[in-house]
Amino acid sequence: MSEHMTFDAPRLAVPDRALSSARMKVGRAAWAARYYKSFSREAVLAIAEAVAKAGYDRAGEFADLAVSETGYGVVEHKALKNRLCTHELLDYYRDMDLVTPRIDAARKIIELPKPAGVVFALAPATNPVATVYYKAMLAVLSRNAIVISPHPAAKKVSAQAAQHLAAAAEAAGAPSGLIQCVEEPSIPLVQDIMSSDRINVIIATGGTAMVRAAYSSGNPALGVGPGNAVAYVDPSARVDAAAKCLVESKSFDNSVLCTNESVVVTLESNRGNMERALRSAGAHVCNEADTDRLREYLFGGDGFTLEAIGKSAQWIAERAGIRVSPSTKVLVPVVATPGQDDLLFREKLCPVLTLTAAVDFEQAVTFAKHTTRRGAGHSAAFHGEDSTRLVEFSQDMPVYRVVVNAPCSQGAAGFETHLPPTFTIGTGFAGRSSIGENVGPQHLVHWTRIAYAKEAPADLAGVDLSRVSSDRPSTPTQVQAPPPQTGGTGDVTRDELRRLILEELRSLKGEV
């Protein structure tokens, strides 16, 4: 570089305020994580109880705000999802001890829990508050700090929910900065924070592009992929019960959960019964003309029509030019041949459930496998009493959750089954993800294992583990003041400005 070019180079790049604020939140979270990792199990559970109560108390209010801000879903259903991520989620994991060291005297192994540190969590617009509740609870239970980046379409309600939980956590003894939310998210900001060396793990819930970006950030990531769940209804099923499950699942929160059924396949011999049962359960079964109109409305442009996401069946029918009963919960387009690559066999985050019929069970499974590859690793549903076919279906499907005789939306997420309750569905190897389970707090803790020689004597009873976690709960008075932060405005403090200047000077000297 010439001397002239050196003098013309900027001496100080004024930082983007939102990015500067987000970086300082990460620094604040790193501070909180260092203190929180030594809290006792008693203290952790006390903080989790406070967070659960705070979330439950305002679940309905935040549900209303979420629908108002995003236009997605049903207030009553969102309120239910929010509540499920409070006391019920805590109760599921209450007995999972991620704090106390474990001693296996027979195998001469001591295990010490090591929290990740700072969790960076992405939250989608479709489930903004429930995801904030859920990921914040996971962080609290695993003794991690969390910085949440909401979808821009839901940034206000997400930030309010996170701030409400943070206040409850701090009142219960948590260090300041344990739960934080980015107020002004953007793609450049998210990409910058994801690659920060202060982030220890990313939980990515959202679109495929963002999940792929999380995996390529250079930091460990727990990512999930899109769903495209297929439900198979066997002739051995109670068809009325199966239809009721399908309609309840597909209409729940206007089908914004990625676990909702996208396609239902039955056998040709059972198709008439299936159509009748779906009508009785509240679905509008489309004729050929209505099916064509619905396909054109949903996929006639460049990809899926985004305005249809999370809207009601009546709203979509009106836009598509289809006359339906005011009580219609779900629209059911009918595609006669399951083997063709119809656009209606793709994921639809709205109450539209495609029906098709196979000539036999083998064709049904082949079709289901082909269709589910667009949501590989995610979920599927089976309705019927034939256990042999259930096992064959589950073995052949490229998914890690098969819900039996239950709504897939709630079942795969663990709220209508005994699967772990979650709003982050691991899609495993099939979905190019690092995890195939429903994500829980145990995935945010690793363990250091102290292993003694097999044949040598070991006095494990005399090992002092008091430094790992205190028997006494930490209190706010025991915690030092956190580093200064900018607040919601994103203004740069003097200390931050001084640090930026020093970094600029070092870079000019070639030290960085």
TrEMBL record:
It comes from Roseovarius faecimaris. Residues 466-494 are annotated as: Disordered. GO terms for molecular function: oxidoreductase activity, acting on the aldehyde or oxo group of donors, NAD or NADP as acceptor. Gene3D superfamilies: Aldehyde Dehydrogenase, Chain A, domain 1, Aldehyde Dehydrogenase, Chain A, domain 2. This is Aldehyde dehydrogenase family protein. It comes from the Bacteria. Keywords: Oxidoreductase. Residues 25-271 form the Aldehyde dehydrogenase domain.
